[in-house]
Amino acid sequence: MAWYHEITASLAALFGRRRQDREMDEEMRFHLEMETKRLVDGGMTARDASRRARRDFGGVERHKDDTRDERGAGRWFDAWSDVRFALRSLRHRPGLTAAATLTLALGIGATSTVFGVVKRVLLTALPYGHPESVVAVWSAWKGFDQTWLSYDEWEGWKARVPAFADIALYFDGAATIDGDSPERVRSSAVQASVFSILGVRPERGRGFTAEEDRPGGPRVAVISHELWERRFGADPSVVGRQIPISGSTTLIVGVMPAGFQMPLDYAGGEPTAIWFPLATDAANQGAVPGPAFPKGGASHGYYGVARLAPGATAAAANSQLKTLVAELEEFGYMSNVGFHAFVVPIEEQITGRVRPVLLIVFGAVVLVLLIACANVAGLLLVRGETRRRELAVRVALGAGTNRLARLLVTESAILAAFGGAMGVALAAISVRLLRANAPLGLPRLTETTVDWSVLVFAFLVAGLTALLTGVLPLAQARHLAPAGELREGGRGATSGRARLRWRQLLVATEIALAVVLVAGAGLMIRTVRNLLTINPGFRPDGVLTMRVSTPSQWYPDSTRVVAFWDEVQRRVAAVPGVTRASAVRILPLATEMGDWGLVIQGYSPPPNQGAPGDWQVVTPGYFETLGLTLRKGRTFTAGDDMRAPLAMIVNRAFEQQYFAGRDALGGRVRISSSDTTRWYTIVGVVDDVRHNKLVGTVKPQFYATLAQFAVAPGSTRRSMSLVARTDGDPKALIASVRAVVRSVDSRLAVSEVRSMRDIVDAAIGGQKFAMQTLGVFGLIALLLSAIGIFGIVSQVVASRVHEFGIRAALGATPNDLMAIGLRSGIRQAATGLVVGVVAALVLTRVLHTLLHGVTPTDPLTFVAVVAVTGVVTIAASFAPARRAARIDPNVALRVD
Amino acid sequence: MTTNHAGPRAEVVRGTLEMLALTLLSEKPMHGWGISLRLREISRDVFDVNQGSLYPALQAMTRRGWIRAEWRISENNRRARYYSITAEGRKQLSAEIEEWNRTSGAVNRVLRFAYTGG
């Protein structure tokens, strides 16, 4: 290959461009002169000879362009001159350039932001080794579609499910790092093999050994990278050091890698910071040792995670579990409750819930991008109109259509490049905003960053917009017939008609797309409204919550725990602004609640079924603090203490299920596993609280006081959530309430400080996110469509000034003229609306999993969408249409 | 790039044009118009269209190093740009002629076969 020729040619082209141009001109002139001379010698007149020579030579400009193209690097100079030319012509129309750039920036920015989110949440692998073969393992039975495993199940699955390479148990809790500034962090108790199943090794030190993971084993812990940095200043000597944690000296044996999170951490809240060995065995669990099962059932309290054997699939694991469970049912394990066990691939487990939301949002943002492109294409078309003569002259002078095409595409490309750059800036800002205001309850959203892949994506999108916005003006220019164009003259009253049709089509498309987006936004707004109007059974506004634990080394008995909470409650209630305070075992909509077997006098459960009740433990004043509605009887008082008769409050579902036709008040209930002589008496009935989910059925639930629950079934709740009600902003109270807890016991750490409103919002985070993004996109779409309509009516009015002048002269009233102008906009709007509504009726179906209380084709929403879009388009047509009304025939008829 | 004079005098395809120009230049250095004129004479005006398209072809061959350009004084005392073939250009030409012979030989055989009916 003669590459060196190419290089020298390129260099010559680089440094000798002007000279080469001059020489080319001279060479071609020489050719024409010689040819003319030859023809004259042959007997032609000088004039004819010159014409003939030119004709035979062909378009001089085109040949020059083609020759330049052959110069090697010279073609870069052509591109550069195209760019300079395009920049110049864009600068001459700053309004149009700004509008087009901003529109594209909006489209590219929004698309890149959403891509960043999608990439992080759905496309970035979880921080586990080969996450594709990690699965979450669950049990399920009547009333529990996805719940914990028992120890026996773990042993059984480990021995008898060949699809599992390994399976391990863990559960989550909280621990306090003691010291001068105690810190409460999320913790996890894991079997030694959990880390290897997740495919993650500690970055420092080691994981747990089998020796440590047994009852009575040494007290050891692994800490998170983040805790190591925050609390221990990334001191490497922490590994091997003894640290007081939750009241006992603990040996730190390892530090997990940065960014490592337990599967559950993604569901929300702060990530786990400390791991302990689970340290349990069958004997400890009261379970049947080995891969055997007790008849009847067992206590379920562990999360399960497994690694699939090489080549095994989740489906294989599920079918093996199914066979095994059928066998167990025969044997009598958990029979008649619809027991089954299943696995969920870890990725689906973590992101399955947000996937549909994000895909919908991504689809929506693509529509926004299309609208933006349509808008810019429309703007460029208008400009194409005003430039027809300039372009025609160029073609007539011999500029090849290829060259012309390159010019136009260069312009689109420059606009797209500007738009892309601004779009990336916009994406950087909106990602920041998104991270700061990420809706609660959406996993990994806050990890979103604008990284190189987002930049590449923005670049590709910009290229796509350059193509999309350039292709129409190009098609328009290709049909230039110079002769006709130049003859058409200044007064092209109707000349633009055919070309106007393209713009009309664009605008109608924009409106149709906008209708789809606005319809989606409307449906989500209604959904969120419906969700917000669901009565959760309590009043979430004005409630501050935080978690406090009373470890047994400082609070050895329940009396002291109760006394502590009495004191905290009393002092917090005295804080200015606080109207009520109390404590509760777990907060509604924050932590899922399990049930406890009950014995209820006068109620005999169907065979093989107990009388389960979701159990809630509270301090007196809880119902008033959280604003539950008392139906009958009374709420708890300070008198319901350890010495008083056991008092229970139940929800309406409890009364309906276990006291059908009877009055629950005075009913007697025993919490099974407690002393058979200890009976609770029902003293009150409250409205159902939607504890686990905002939607769905509520199960029977009972309430006991902290003091009396310590009596029967004899369980002291050591972790409670403090709840404080205020008339003002609950978050304004954080510092003072924290101070109160510290003043009662400075050793205790406070964690999970949240308002009840945040917790409720997190419960509908997916829908809220969809509503907000679709809402913003819908607004952008409406705005862009309005600009489109405005532009088209302006163009119609401007191109028909002459006609309007004649009409006015013939007696048309200003109102008549305005009506003509308006009609031109309304026709596009109507077409767009009809097409958009039809498209929306089909497309909104994808929302159905997100919707609540509204169908994807909700008539009310669609009527509202049509009304809103209609009003916007009419409003946008109004200003330019008024210009038509004010046309002065004298002036209009003089216009050139 | 299509011609507006579609007809018997088909536009010379770029590759052919290059080969013909190289052939002429292998005899002696010539300027652009000279090449164009000789082409028309020899081909009896078959190649009489769009004379200007010769120049991009010359430029391309210059870039590839097949020909060299220099300004000289022409036969009627005018400054003209003369092209001469290089060693590489000769190599290229013989390769193209060989290729051409092979192709045209094949085409001829097919045509003969078609006319004589085999």
Give the class of chain A from helix and strand content and strand pairing: alpha+beta
Could you name the ranges of chain B where pLDDT drops below 50 across 5 or more consecutive residues?
Answer: 1-11
Number of helical regions of chain A: 28
User: Rough shape of chain A?
Assistant: elongated
Largest sheet of chain B: 3 strands, antiparallel
Question: What percentage of residues of chain B falls in helices of 4 or more residues?
Answer: 55-70%
Give the CA-based shape of chain B.
globular
Please provide the count of β strands of chain B: 3
Q: Biggest interface and its residues per chain?
A: A-B, 30 and 27 residues
Query: Per DSSP, what share of the residues of chain B sits in E-state strands of 2 or more residues?
Result: 5-15%
State the major sheet of chain A: 12 strands, mixed
Oligomer classification: heterodimer
Radius of gyration of chain A from CA coordinates = 38 Å
Overall mean pLDDT of chain B: 81
| Estimated radius of gyration of chain B | 16 Å
Distance between the termini of chain B: 40 Å
Put simply, the count of helices of chain B is: 4
Helix content of chain A: 40-55%
Structural class of chain B: alpha+beta
